[in-house]
Amino acid sequence: MTKPKVGRIFLATCVGSLFMIILYFQNITRPAVEQFGGKGIGPGKTRRSPLQTLYNEDQLDMSAAQASLRGRRELLEEACLTHTRKRRVLTPDDLRHLIVDDKHSLLYCYVPKVACTNWKRVLMVLTGDGRYREPLAIPANEAHVAGNLRTLSEYSTGEINHRLRRYLKFLFVREPFERLVSAYRNKFTRSYNTAFHKRYGTKIIRRHRPHPEPEALEQGNDVSFKEFVQYLVDPRTQREEPFNEHWERIHSLCHPCLIHYDVVGKYETLEQDSRSVLRLAGADGEVHFPTSGKSTRTNGDMAAQFFHNISPFYQKKLYNLYHMDFLLFNYSNPEYLKFR
Q1: I want to staple 317 with a disulfide (CB 3.0 to 4.6 A). Which of 92, 233, 332, 338 is the partner?
Q2: Res 61: pLDDT
Q3: End-to-end Cα distance, the chain
Q4: How confident is residue 54, by pLDDT bands cut at 50, 70 and 90?
Q5: How far is the C-alpha of 79 from the C-alpha of 204, rounded, in Å?
């Protein structure tokens, strides 16, 4: 069986307060999970870590869930080796989306519109002092308050290196265009998101709507999906500022070809994969991942409706923008695209 390829971490020089970590992929003979080490439970015995159970078991003995998680990780590593050949330097800013749970040795890269609110709630329960026992008791806005959870960028170089090497690292991904439509629906079609309307909507309308009404220029609350797509593919957009995290590419938020994630969960199998992560962390007896009660969750059929009026020209440009997320996380090209 082909052994997983894992990232080995080396520290680069410190320049003022800026530190850099260089990671590269190479073949080794034993999975990285072995470095966690098991504490002895008796004379001559060692305890297998959950990741050893997940990645070292014979294929025939693995559950379907284990096989799926292992397959995703191997596919991701192969895609990274094929499509990203250059070494890459990480800065502290690259680590802002990695949430740290020191109690359970977890690193979670949160991706907006991929159940990150509920995962932040879960981590607040796990890292807290007992104030919260049920994730859904935590208001959604409180889950996103800076300071409630620590990110990896807040640690020293040595502490970062230790956690990247030793902790269970996981992220959750989603079909890129379904995530994009979900972001558009949430940020531009909900009346309560006035901050996004003012911050982004007014700019989008001013730049991409011929002869806009003065009220639209002032309020920015009626951006069409077509205008949103035009804004995303406009070269000026990223020259002026980085994408907002709600529509930034997952690979740009979490750097999966530089940070060796142990588990790649998927939105499409959210509850099953979340249970697996909590079980691997030994936290499944402390908290349960909340089940979703949403009846209007953005799916492929809904995404197809939004893309119906997007021209093949803009569909192609948008696909090129998000191509790496399709590739790295093994999502097929949507059937509704017209540029084939």
Answers
A1: 233
A2: 54
A3: 36
A4: low
A5: 34
Which token pair is 19? 């530190």
Residues linked to residue 203 through DSSP beta bridges, in sequence order? none
How many angstroms from the chain centroid is the CA of residue 54?
21
CA distances (Å), origin 302, targets 14, 185, 307, 308? 48, 11, 9, 10
Sequence-separated (6 or more) residues with CB below 8 Å from residue 200: 187, 188, 220, 223, 231, 244
- Of 179, 185, 236, nearest to 207 (Cα)? 236
**pLDDT per position as a tens digit, 317-328:** 999 999 999 999
pLDDT, one tens digit per residue, over 240-278 is 999 999 999 999 999 999 999 999 999 999 999 999 999
Supply the angle between the helices 312-328 and 176-188 in degrees, to the nearest 10: 120
The neighbouring-strand residues paired with 169 are 107
Q: Is 195 exposed, middle or buried (0-12, 13-18, 19+ CB in 10 A)?
A: exposed
| DSSP character string of 117-128 | HHHHHHHHHHHS
d(CA 309, CA 314): 10
Tell me which residue has tokens 């098991």: 38
Calculate Rg over the CA atoms of the chain.
21
> Is beta strand 168-173 parallel, antiparallel or unpaired with respect to 106-109?
parallel
What distance in Å separates the CA atoms of residue 2 and residue 155, rounded to the nearest whole number?
Answer: 35
Q: Which long-range contacts (CB under 8 A, 24 or more apart) does 25-31 make?
A: 25/77, 25/80, 25/81, 25/257, 25/260, 27/3, 28/3, 29/3, 30/3, 31/3, 31/4, 31/6, 31/55, 31/56
* pLDDT in the model for residue 317: 98
Contact (Cβ atoms closer than 8 angstroms) between residue 299 and residue 98: no
Q: Which pTM does this prediction carry?
A: 0.84
The token duo for 43 is 């004379």
